[in-house]
Write a structure and sequence with these properties.
The protein has 115 residues and is mainly alpha-helical. It has 4 helices and 3 strands; from the N terminus they run αβαααββ.
Length: 115
Amino acid sequence: MKHGMTAASVGLLAGALVLSAPIGLFRAGTAHAGEELSLNRASVQELTELEGGVISEALARNIVEHRREHGPYKTAADLLRVPGVKPELLDILVLQERDGDVVYEADAYVTMPTY
């Protein structure tokens, strides 16, 4: 009987963990399918971990530093002011502009080389 209760407890715990997982909007960490990452909140590590590794560490540092010095990005075009960001990168990331924020959607990602 004790073994059956333990298995049930494990099942309940596993279910609780799945149900308590974050849905993904503006979540800290790497964006996975169905999730979004705000470029105004993303760290250097989060930017370099975007699916496919399309942003190098040096470019991620430039993005974060520019944001720190000049304020949040309001449009995707604002990123073109960052040293090293090229229009092709914006095409690859397919960034969305929402409520004064710039958001990367993992589902919109297009596979391309690292910049």
